[in-house]
Design a protein that fits this description.
mainly alpha, DNA Cyclobutane Dipyrimidine Photolyase, subunit A, domain 3, 484 residues, single chain, 3 domains, globular, binds flavin-adenine dinucleotide, Rossmann fold, five-stranded parallel beta sheet
Length: 484
Amino acid sequence: MKRVIHWFRRDLRLSDNTALNAGAVRAEDIVPVFVWDDACFGSAGLGERQLAFLRDAITALRNSLRELRHELIICCGQPEVELPKLCKELRAEAVFCNRGYEPEEKRVEARVFSALNAAGFGFESFKDSVVWEEQEILTQAGRPFTVFTPYARAWKARPIPAPKPRLTKRRANTRLPKIKSYDLPVVLGVTGKSDAGAAPDATEKGALTTLAKFMSGPVYEYATLRDYPAKNGTSRLSPHLRFGTVGIRTVLAALRKARSRARSITEKKSCDVFLTELIWREFYNQILANFPHVAHGSFRPEYNALEWSENSAHFDAWCNGMTGYPIVDAAMRCLNATGWLHNRLRMIVAMFLSKDLLINWQWGERYFMRKLVDADLAANNGGWQWSASTGTDAAPYFRIFNPVAQGQKFDPNGEFIRRWVPELASFPVELIHQPWKNPAALNRAGYHHRIILHEKQRLKVIEMYRAVKTRSRIGERAGQRHDS
Ligand SMILES: Cc1cc2nc3c(=O)[nH]c(=O)nc-3n(C[C@H](O)[C@H](O)[C@H](O)COP(=O)(O)OP(=O)(O)OC[C@H]3O[C@@H](n4cnc5c(N)ncnc54)[C@H](O)[C@@H]3O)c2cc1C
């Protein structure tokens, strides 16, 4: 092929990029293009922090491409309109891109394919952001896995592909017609600086540095430290994996290398625990791709009948970190201030919203999508449905985190709480998780009283779920009688 367009989507990097590598191998010339369209990144739209990450990632990508004598073309509009137009103007034969798995991404891809096809141009999409796609790992009966452990076993039994080579310098193409290209910060409406300190380095280089740092030591303690929010025990790779500033094969190759350097069985096991987390990412990706209804409701449809509370004052208190439960409030304030939240805290606040406040998990899911820098429909939806017990392989509905016990176990000295709830900074360890035990000190500190009592809510929520389960069983039996 003479010329192809590489359509950058959630693959904002030059190394280990499957479609880009295919273009480099098969075409004499590649033209890199980014099309800004809300739908590219899901119908929910991007939150402020994701926009800032995207802006920085694209800016860095454009600079790296320039070093290789390529100019990134940035267009605005629907990809199915812009890409055929560009093919004509640039005399490109085809568009190459990496596949997306969210319902909206798939719809956009199908429209792009039809439009290019109708205009006489080629279109090829490649597997890139996951190791195994939704139809590649199936049960013996040929169905998608809905339970994690056997899925992970099947995943691990397969060979792991090597990273793709990095795009290298090519001859400058001086004969390209001049194409209008936009200034991304202006298009995105995010011209300010990313919040200092809190924002991840949203570049391919930043991703590789984060990966190298994690693999040089922390990965060996991951299994023991990953549950403690006050420790920096996790990789912080999630926004990079979300936007593709790092390739999954690169992460896996680095992990394999780190594992080979492990000095003990414990260190090897820690590497394996990290691998399991990466497999959770693929598990939820295939759940969303195979069961797209999860994007709009419970994986188990009977739970769509749950009668949730619509108490907006409670929801606001949860959003703003004012529930009176220190670990929940610290977590939500951290999320609001930084756009990132430790996995343990995501589980705690998600359970608190759905099982203590009895508020629909979808309200929380939407809030997370707006706030998280790594907001990812598949992982977020999976995490929320797990916490609310409405999903695949979810926590049983009667397993309900006690926010006090969770705080005591995973933030034993209250270090994380003190950082984010300054009202409680001087509280002793015995009180920091239950400040209401000293009402006078609580009032003096100006901290909130509990908006609900966990023990009471626990009984209520169990009853709420049990009622739905009973109704659905009666319904099933009635249905069976009717059928027979
Ligand atoms: C309610 C809830 C909402 C969540 N929302 C998101 C989200 O929007 N985006 C997101 O990437 N993750 C989400 N997660 C999963 C997990 O919390 C984050 O991936 C993790 O905290 C990111 O930090 P890290 O990169 O340091 O993770 P590490 O512990 O270092 O894990 C490495 C990578 O594995 C993947 N991973 C780890 N745990 C999970 C998991 N449980 N499910 C899927 N992938 C996982 C991520 O890509 C992560 O970057 C959510 C979890 C819950 C309980």
